[in-house]
Amino acid sequence: MTPQNMFANLGSILASLVFIRAMFQQYFPHQLQNFLEKYSQRLMAFFYPYIQIRFNEFTGERLTRSEAYSAIENYLSSTTSMQAKRLKAETGKNNQSLVLSMDDHEEVGDEFKGVRLWWASGKHGVRAQTTLFNPLPDEKRHYRLTFHKKYRDLIIGPYLNHVLKEGKAIKVRNRQRKLYTNYGCYWSHVVFEHPATFQTLAMEPEKKQEIIDDLNTFSKAEEFYARIGRAWKRGYLLYGPPGTGKSTMIAAMANHLGYDIYDLELTAVRDNTELRRLLIETSSKSIIVIEDIDCSLDLTGQRRKKKKEKKESGEEEKEPKKKDEKEENENKSSQVTLSGLLNFIDGLWSACGGERLIVFTTNYVEKLDPALIRKGRMDKHIELSFCKFEAFKVLAKNYHKLEYHHLFPKISELFEEADMTPADVAEHLMPKSISGEATLCLESLIQGLEKAIEEAKLKAVVEAKKIEESAKNEAKEEDK
Ligand SMILES: Nc1ncnc2c1ncn2[C@@H]1O[C@H](COP(=O)(O)OP(=O)(O)OP(=O)(O)O)[C@@H](O)[C@H]1O
Ligand SMILES: [Mg+2]
Fold first, then answer.
1. Ligand closest to the CA atom of residue 246
2. What SUPFAM superfamilies does the annotation carry (predicted)?
3. Least crowded by CB within 10 Å, which of 144, 339, 408, 412?
């Protein structure tokens, strides 16, 4: 055989081999693989005492991310960062913090009621193509749970429930919280990042602790509410003069519980149907706030309008009800009624489960309809009042890191007599220069308090005179 013939033969043999290999790859491996897999797994199951459950990342048409998968991811996040050697990092809320999860083909252990089990992450099947309509990556990720078969009931029931619940709770805790406001009958939201906390809230310590305990009890009472057959909700009424920290307390509540806030502007809601729709759209773990309920409920128009009137007439309204009625006739665009709101709080509310707080604020508690604030609707009434010495100490600590100062005794005495709102006290304590001399601020506060006491005395004298005069007039009329 000449070398040319030899090469020609070799060429054709190679070509045939390539052809056979291609054919083999195309038709055989698939069936062969399935076949081998099927029987090897049956054989394994016979001797292997463990059960495995796989949780795929995408379910159905691969378009929806499995809730179970993300719950497991969250649940494992703390264990993972302690145990796994290869981790994946993604940016969390705000793009500021990092969220760690297991990298592919890692395994971590877990324990439940003394039973050991293992979670492994993996990926499988690289078949689906990414297209314009299916932009998901080719790899399908999954978690695989392995445990001994004698614990089947314990793991499939209580343990998996525990994982899903805990995972969802972690997700809620880590989410970016939102502040919703309604424009007509639609909610729009911004990121909620209010720095107020109960620690920075100026209030008597016992009263503050009572509120914190109440909130904590509520947030842990899911089973209790289910047992007694009541919707998991609680109503708060915050009342007190302007600038005493009602809005600040709502922010502190949201921060304490990790809830979203729905700030409901009733005057922008057209009727009861819209109100119902808005409220049904609120999510679980949220605080629904209706500020200045006395102003918005009779739909007498906005608070600003009222204030303007007050300023113009230079005195308190004498007959608020009559005025309200007049305005109601003028302002027909909004027809939310008291009964609509009450119906919602009692009836429909119960239908949409989940933990919700409803908070009403008002400056004039005595003006509210008793039906609205009876117990059961508004479970807790909190009065926020003028700043006293204990509350002042919280502000002094926040603003100037002061535990004690030689002016404190004098300030304490003045607070006994003076009525000053926390907002005014805070204004005095606000550092006026970068160096922020605490003594200067305290002196300014002392001046403010003295002025407030004097003004109060003057007012008392004027009022006493008025009463005297009206008594005299009455006496005169009687004589006549
Ligand atoms: N109890 C408080 N503790 C700390 N800061 C307070 C407190 N009360 C008021 N402030 C300060 O005063 C400002 C006004 O308070 P806030 O808006 O909470 O008052 P409000 O009671 O909601 O008044 P309004 O009735 O006018 O709505 C806040 O920005 C806050 O800094
Ligand atoms: Mg307010």
1. 1
2. P-loop containing nucleoside triphosphate hydrolases
3. 339
Q: In what order do the strands lie in the sheet with 233-239?
A: 186-191, 178-183, 260-263, 286-290, 356-362, 233-239, 380-383
* Series of mean pLDDT values for 10-residue runs along the chain (480 residues): 72 82 67 74 79 85 76 83 77 65 84 90 66 59 90 91 89 84 88 91 92 94 86 90 93 93 89 86 90 71 41 44 45 68 70 81 86 80 92 92 90 91 92 78 92 92 92 86
- CA-to-CA distance for 134 and 359, rounded, in angstroms? 44
Q: Is the CB of 385 under 6 A from ligand 1?
A: no
Q: Are 432 and 239 in contact (CB under 8 A)?
A: no
Rounded CA separation 474/477 (Å): 5
Please check whether residue 118 is in contact with residue 130, taking contact to mean a CB–CB distance below 8 angstroms: no
- Report CA-CA distances (Å) from 356 to 181, 189, 213, 221, 344: 16, 18, 16, 12, 13
202 lines ligand 1 (CB under 6 A): yes
Q: What is the ipTM of this complex?
A: 0.97
Note the pTM of the prediction, 2 decimals: 0.72
Going by DSSP bridges, is the β-strand pair 178-183/140-148 parallel, antiparallel, or unpaired? unpaired
